[in-house]
């Protein structure tokens, strides 16, 4: 492949399919207390799942799941949800402390007909929860997010041992509706534009930490709540570590730079990785490795479609890298779901034979890593639709900066 160099003065060419991105508006970000999400419907869906289980009550302690079901974003809370079989005055009870009295009322306004809110100390919250649960002996709790101490506390308070939950809220979260996908789309556009504004800094030999900080600042300036995760900026030999943390190392001409980054909008994340070579000429070893990863990532994305087994994406990426003799240099998973958490269902791996569904949002991110030399990873976030997929991360993939 003849290399195509991105001139740092030619910003318009960096954005792939939306080359007019400098005029793209991110859109009105939702302000505190507002939400377009249909939380009432989510609570109803969860209650239907409870009806089909052996339990009558579900104790939800995972704050991300509480946010998904109610809109509440506080740092402390519990949610008790009843099945339709349980004789409770309202379907759900949200419990939190006095710091969030006003916030909880504002953020859960859309589902207030499904929800009571109790404000009090942790001890009083448990008392209120036990009263809501009543005499039910079929209370379920999530074993993956509940500590032993919490489990023992509930056992003592309820007077019986909670059941291991058969209901996975994460399975509800997996399929995104149009409002959720729009937030991930906005987060992706913010992240793309922020990287475009930050890339020229590579000409001034910043440290990895400095470049990461500037990128994070630009994402916030453009409307993000913050980065999706600790931004990865890894140069030179550091780029051979898939999840290297930014260091005080100076990024120099003639080095590879891997940038793994994302923005968060209303709790929803984007995820993207680009790899650059900082010189007017790249060595043949880099060029061949980049071509291998680029082809694997492109074909992996093209394999993504509704009703396709997820393992096919992983298999496509790995078979492509194997054809270059580089399979053993691919040392991590091929992708993951993205939403309210940066890593969530579904997992893009060889062992996942479930089919993709419309509304899945996944990443495809093959890479190769040559210890002591350099690493290369290319990653995009895709939303699966009726026909194929929408690539939400759009920044161009040419690795050559000059």
* Total DSSP helices: 10
Fraction in helix: 25-40%
Strand content: 15-25%
Distance between the termini: 17 Å
Number of domains: 2
Mean pLDDT rating: 91
Structural class: alpha/beta
Shape: elongated
pLDDT below 50 for ≥5 consecutive residues: which ranges? 1-5, 9-33
Estimated radius of gyration = 23 Å
Q: Could you give me the name of the CATH homologous superfamily of the largest domain?
A: Creatinase/methionine aminopeptidase superfamily
The biggest beta sheet is recorded as:
6 strands, mixed
Provide the spatial order of strands within the biggest beta sheet. Answer: 5-4-3-2-6-7
CATH architecture of the largest domain: Alpha-Beta Complex
- Main CATH class of the largest domain: Alpha Beta
CATH topology assignment of the largest domain: Creatine Amidinohydrolase
Beta strands, count: 21
């Amino acid at each position: 492949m003849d290399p195509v160099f991105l001139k740092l003065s030619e910003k318009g060419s960096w954005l792939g399919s939306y080359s007019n991105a400098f005029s793209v508006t991110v859109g009105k970000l939702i302000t505190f207390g507002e939400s377009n999400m249909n939380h009432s419907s989510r609570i109803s869906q969860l209650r239907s799942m409870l009806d089909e289980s052996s339990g009558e009550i579900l104790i939800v302690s995972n704050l991300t799941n509480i946010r998904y079901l109610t809109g509440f974003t506080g740092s402390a809370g519990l949610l008790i949800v009843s099945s339709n079989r349980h004789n409770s005055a309202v379907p759900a009870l949200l419990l939190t402390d006095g710091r969030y009295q006003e916030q909880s009322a504002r953020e859960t306004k859309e589902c207030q007909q499904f929800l009571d809110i109790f404000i009090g100390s942790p001890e009083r919250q448990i008392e209120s929860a036990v009263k809501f649960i009543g005499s039910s002996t079929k209370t379920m709790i999530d074993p993956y997010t509940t500590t032993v101490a919490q489990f023992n506390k509930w056992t003592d308070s309820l007077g019986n041992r909670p059941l291991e939950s058969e209901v996975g809220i994460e399975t509800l979260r997996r399929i995104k509706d149009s409002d959720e996908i729009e937030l991930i789309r906005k987060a992706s556009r913010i992240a793309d534009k922020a990287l475009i504004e930050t890339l020229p800094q590579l000409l001034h030999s910043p440290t990895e930490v400095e470049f990461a900080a500037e990128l994070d600042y630009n994402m916030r300036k453009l409307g993000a709540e913050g980065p999706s995760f600790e931004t990865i900026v890894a140069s030179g030999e550091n780029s051979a570590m898939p999840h290297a943390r930014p260091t005080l190392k100076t990024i120099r001409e003639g080095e590879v730079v891997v940038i793994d980054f994302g923005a968060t909008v209303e709790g929803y994340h984007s995820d993207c990785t680009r790899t650059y070579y900082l010189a007017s000429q790249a060595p043949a070893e880099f060029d061949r490795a980049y071509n291998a990863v680029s082809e694997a990532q492109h074909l992996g994305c093209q394999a993504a479609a509704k009703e396709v087994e997820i393992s096919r994406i992983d298999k496509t990426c790995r078979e492509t890298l194997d054809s270059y003799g580089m399979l053993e240099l691919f040392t991590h998973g091929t992708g993951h779901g993205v939403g309210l958490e940066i890593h969530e269902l579904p997992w893009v791996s060889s062992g996942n034979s479930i089919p993709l569904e419309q509304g899945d949002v996944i990443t495809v991110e093959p890479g190769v890593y040559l210890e002591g030399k350099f690493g290369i990873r290319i990653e995009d976030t895709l939303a699966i639709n009726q026909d194929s997929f929408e690539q939400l991360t759009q920044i161009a993939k040419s690795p050559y900066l000059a």
